[in-house]
Design goal:
two-stranded antiparallel sheet, mainly alpha, single chain, 71 residues
Length: 71
């Protein structure tokens, strides 16, 4: 997939656990783990908005486009 989710990197930068983020954005830990591990097929703008609000980051910090040849 050409879109890479860097949620694990942002969580490490903020020293925040998946459990803490899940509580902050109101999602189940399992769903945040799916995002963190890059197994998500889609993400709602409202979820991305909540993640950015809690982590104090921009959407571009979470999502990165990488052409398939490089991924």
């Amino acid at each position: 997939m050409a879109i890479v989710i860097n949620l694990d990197v942002e969580l490490a930068k903020k020293k925040m656990s998946v459990t803490d983020l899940a509580a902050g954005i109101g999602l189940a830990v399992a769903n945040v783990s799916i995002l963190k591990n890059g197994r998500a097929k889609a993400v709602r703008f409202s979820t991305l908005d909540a993640i950015c609000a809690v982590l104090g980051c921009q959407p571009g910090d979470i999502l990165t486009y990488v052409p398939d040849e490089e991924h």
